[in-house]
Amino acid sequence: MPFLKQTISLLLVLLAAAAFAKRPVTVISPDKKISFKLNTDQVGMFYSVAYKGIILAQNSRLNISFKEGGAFNKSLVLSSAKMERLTDDYDLIVGKTSKVHSECNRIIIPVSEQTGSKRKLNLEVRVFNDGLAFRYRIPAQSGWKTVNVTDEINTFNFIQNPRVTALLLPNFTTSHEGEYTKTTLKELKADNLMDMPVLLGFANGVYVSLTEAALHDYAGMYLIKHNNVLETRLSPLPNQPDIKVKATLPHNSPWRVMMMSDRVGALIETNILTNLNEPNKIKDVSWIKPGTTTFPWWNGNVTPDSLNAPGNNYVTNMYYVDFCSKYNIAYHSVVEYGLHEWYVNDGEGFQPGPHADPSRAVPGLDMQKVCDSAAAKGVGIRVWVHFYALYPKLEQTFAQYEKWGIKGLMCDFMDRDDQEMVNMQEEILQCAAKHRLHIQFHGAYKPTGMNRTYPNEFTREGTLNYENDKWGTRVTPAQDIDIPFTRMLAGPTDYHLGGFRAATPQNFKVNYTRPMVVGTRCHMLAMYVVLENALGMVCDAPEAYIGQPGFEFLQQVPTTWDETRVVDAEPSQRIAIARRKGDNWYIGAITNNNARELNLKLDFLGDATYGAEVYSDAPDVGINANHLIKELKQVSRQTVLKMILAGGGGQVVHLYPLKR
């Protein structure tokens, strides 16, 4: 009889599990265009995604594994859960939109094992009108207080054969820089690590981008194609490759995000990543002031021959400060001179030596005097610092920067996104906020919307950008056009902008000092609008700008925006973005290596008549890529603006309402 009772009990459990497996959980977007459906079977959880009734992904697996008990995929039961509407209105201090309205349908689904250790977790799903996201929420439970995640192998089983644009990487230790691979999912190389965001274009005109949001106390995520399906992989902890995440329960994963629309520009306009992050944690934001900045390293620290004793000293930095003050550049970056950092360091090649100290300037450089003199001229001072020199002396260094009056810094050379590095970067942001410093991360992983939580994070690199023009020919207008549809979908995207020595591919030469850039000057001007970046660089030398056509545009272009509209876009081909600041609009359009003509409707404008300052490629840019034409026009929301872009070219327009 005891055996019979046990058998009956086991059958009841199995029947209950089977019954739950027949009850899929469905979440739909507020506009009913996107649906997410979750179910279980004998090997775990699986889901499908549809857009406007057409299935994009099906039989896709949700799979997280732990050292404690292995994979969470056996005898799973979904408990009942109620869908609810979430709305949120918030301000973004830095971003493509200043005021955000977020609306989604959300469900939190309890999932439990019916056998073994009977672990439990909650799957939270949110579906917006422009995408969806899910994450694992692991509650504290009896017998399970700490967690060791060994991997998170979620799959995206797309049933069509979409075109893929992705950055392939050799391993997890990376600066996230390189050329993008463009192929179909079927032809994509198997078992090769891919950075996120990845762009997928479907034959029915739908676009999907895969990335993550709210990367906090967790490992960064990547993709691979394995067994013809896209799967996720987590960045391993240093010297402990079998463990990806260590935490005390309760603990949440980041959000796994699928942006989607049948208009690719909507993926650029969406605020879904900041929607999924926590609200601003910095109470006083009055000191957070985005703007443009010099970066003299790029141009080779060019100074006039008449300058007395150029170097890591007061007089050299004041030459750049005076330039900033006169031409409305918000910040001057103190970086290095003669290939030696501005701070004390006994290492080589900018790598920290055993006695590196970024809180002490090299002999001959009085940072207090530089900061005081710059402040008197209305210019902020920023610095460049190597991460591994900074982090061991974080509080000491930031306290000294605050004392000097430094406003922010570029933190460089992290090249990791394991849980340890993710936590160290968040610690940097927290400590920087305490000392009223903004942060620019270079050699860093993609943004995940944390600039909502810590608005002192101005921008991140993670791109192959114009710094490479100092030593190679890899960066071209065709490379530039990939960035808005890939890396920039994750958020602020830092480039070494402002090269005013434009050249055709035939005329380009590699110069370490006074570098050239491939493409037209109008292409360069347009990049300030095309890219989302709260800290736009003006990184050429003053001599390259003063008296040059187009420089007046760099003196007025904002770096944060109240509204963003993508008015024309085709991946790999062209993009035109309109961004509003107050009553003024700025339009930036770039093309790849092919010339083209665009006809842009200005129906996003208000009812006023607008003045338009239009900077266009000159007819002879095939000979001199720096030539441009500036025209003044009157336009209205009924106007269709004709843009003629040269190969590798661009156009920028500043629109301002005219007084009646």
Automatic annotation (TrEMBL):
Top-level taxon of origin: Bacteria
Pfam families: GH97_C (PF14509), GH97_N (PF14508), Glyco_hydro_97 (PF10566)
Domain Glycosyl-hydrolase 97 C-terminal oligomerisation: 560-655
UniProt signal peptide: 1-21
Annotated ranges, domain Glycosyl-hydrolase 97 catalytic: 297-462
Domain Glycosyl-hydrolase 97 N-terminal: 27-279
Cofactor(s) of this protein: Ca(2+)
Coiled-coil annotated spans: none
Quaternary structure (record): Monomer.
Protein known as: Glycoside hydrolase family 97 protein
Organism: Mucilaginibacter glaciei
